[in-house]
Amino acid sequence: MSETPFPRDPGAPEAPAQEPPRPPAYTPGSAQPRLNRPVHERYPQIRPTSGYGDPRIRHTGPGPGAGTEQEPERSSKLSARLALALTVVIGQLWGLTIVVDEWMAGDTGTAWWGAGFLVLSFLVVLGIWLVDPKDR
Question: How open is the CA angle 84-85-87, to the nearest 5 degrees?
């Protein structure tokens, strides 16, 4: 592509071609000899066991029991509701596929029955959500 958006004047003298500057050749290493040492010499505090065998690490995180469920009954209720809601959502996606296929085929009666199924399944999920408002 030319440097200017304007067409070249045919009577103007030819401009000399300019080469873009070349990047310097890559040479591994550094000009500072102290940076060319192996990693274990540059950073003696990093040992092969750093992290799990490092004596400076005293506490690895929260104590025992962290992350476990404190109320198993509530957890089972939420898991059951989640499984039921996911089943209904999968049914809605399947029903939406059937409704769209029937609508595109011209069978609008079946498509309306399918739309009713989708509304009913939405109301089921809404009912599941309203069952226990203190869990939110």
Answer: 65
